[in-house]
Design a protein that fits this description.
The protein is built from 13 helices and no strands. With 304 residues, it is mainly alpha-helical. Its main location: membrane.
Length: 304
C-alpha cells in the first residue's frame, strides 16, 4: 500500500509540472520575464525549505554542487525566460514543446556515452521527436523549412534558449547521477537559480515590480506548485513504482500542452497537436528501446 501511495505522489508531481509552463507564463506577464521568474524561484526555494528542511551545505560534494548546479541553473533560466520572453502565449507553448526534446536527447546522449550497441529504433525515434517540434512551429500553414525559419526569425533568442535548455537538461540527466552519489541538492540549486535571476533582473532595464492581489496570489500558487512537484517526486523516486512513473512521465508533453493551453486560454490547431504527439511518441519509443540499459533516466525530471 505504501508503494501505491508513493506512486500516486509521483503521478501528482507529473500533473503539477504539467501546469507549470502555463502558470510561469502568466506570472511573467503580470510582473516581467526576468523579475517574474526570479520571484517564482524565490517563492519555490522558501516553500521547499519549509517542506524539506534547510539544506546542510557541508554534506554536498563540491564537484556535484558546481557542475550539477551550473547545469541546473542554466536550464531553469533558459526555460523560464524562453516562456516569459515569447512573443505571445501561442509561441510560449511552442517553447514548451521544444523543451520536451530533452527525454529523447537524454537517451541519445546516454547511448553515446555508454558506447554500447545501439537499438535500431533509437535514431528514428529521436528524429521523430525533432520532426514533431518542427511540425508545431510551422502551424496549420503546412510543413516548410522556409516557414520554420520565418517563425524562428520573429524571436530567435527564445527559440535558442528553449532548444539550449533541452540540451542542457539532457546533459544534466546523464552526469549528475554519478556526481550526486545519492545526494539531493535541489534546494541549493533552486536558491542559486533565484539569485542568478535577481542579479540579471537588477542589471536589466525591466520596470519595477508591481504587486497586485491577483498577481501575488498567482505567484504564490506557481511557486507552491513548482516546489510541491519536486518535493513529491523526490519521495516517489525513492519509494514508488519507478517503472510506471517513468512511462507516465513520457506522456507529460501531451498533458502539459493540454493543461497549459487551458490555463493560457489558447486554442491549438490540429497540426500543433500532431507535433506534440510526435514528440511524445519519439521520446517514448526512444526510452522503450533502451529501457534495460538506462532504467533511471527519468529520476531527474525537470519542472515541465
Amino acid at each position: 500500500m505504501k508503494q501505491h501511495k508513493h506512486t500516486l505522489f509521483g503521478v501528482a508531481a507529473i500533473l503539477l509540472w504539467s501546469c507549470l509552463l502555463g502558470l510561469i507564463r502568466t506570472v511573467t506577464e503580470q510582473f516581467s520575464p526576468i523579475g517574474g521568474a526570479a520571484l517564482i524561484y524565490t517563492v519555490s526555494s522558501v516553500f521547499l525549505m519549509l517542506v524539506m528542511g534547510v539544506p546542510k551545505f557541508k554534506h554536498f560534494s563540491l564537484r556535484y554542487v558546481l557542475i550539477g548546479g551550473a547545469l541546473f541553473v542554466s536550464y531553469e533560466i533558459c526555460l523560464a525566460l524562453a516562456l516569459g520572453m515569447a512573443n505571445d502565449r501561442h509561441q510560449a507553448l511552442e517553447m514548451a514543446v521544444i523543451n520536451y526534446l530533452w527525454p529523447a536527447l537524454t537517451v541519445l546522449f546516454a547511448v553515446f556515452l555508454s558506447r554500447k550497441p545501439v537499438h535500431i529504433l533509437v535514431y528514428p525515434s529521436v528524429a521523430l521527436a525533432f520532426v514533431g517540434v518542427a511540425w508545431t512551429i510551422t502551424g496549420d500553414s503546412g510543413f516548410s523549412v522556409m516557414q520554420i525559419s520565418a517563425n524562428i526569425a520573429t524571436n530567435p533568442l527564445t527559440y535558442s534558449m528553449a532548444f539550449g535548455g533541452a540540451i542542457i537538461w539532457a546533459v544534466y540527466c546523464n552526469i549528475t547521477k554519478q556526481l550526486a552519489n545519492g545526494q539531493n541538492a535541489i534546494i541549493p540549486f533552486f536558491m542559486a537559480t533565484a539569485i542568478a535571476l535577481w542579479i540579471k533582473y537588477f542589471l536589466s532595464s525591466e520596470s519595477t515590480l508591481v504587486f497586485t492581489v491577483p498577481a501575488t496570489l498567482n505567484l504564490a500558487l506557481t511557486g507552491v506548485v513548482m516546489g510541491s512537484g519536486y518535493a513529491l517526486w523526490n519521495v516517489a523516486i525513492l519509494r514508488g513504482n519507478m517503472m510506471l512513473l517513468a512511462t507516465l512521465s513520457y506522456f507529460t508533453p501531451v498533458i502539459s500542452t493540454l493543461l497549459s493551453s487551458l490555463i493560457l486560454g489558447v486554442a491549438l490547431g490540429f497540426s500543433f497537436w500532431q507535433g506534440v504527439i510526435m514528440v511524445t511518441m519519439g521520446s517514448l519509443i526512444c526510452w522503450w528501446a533502451t529501457r534495460e540499459r538506462q532504467p533511471t533516466v527519468q529520476e531527474k525530471m525537470p519542472i515541465a
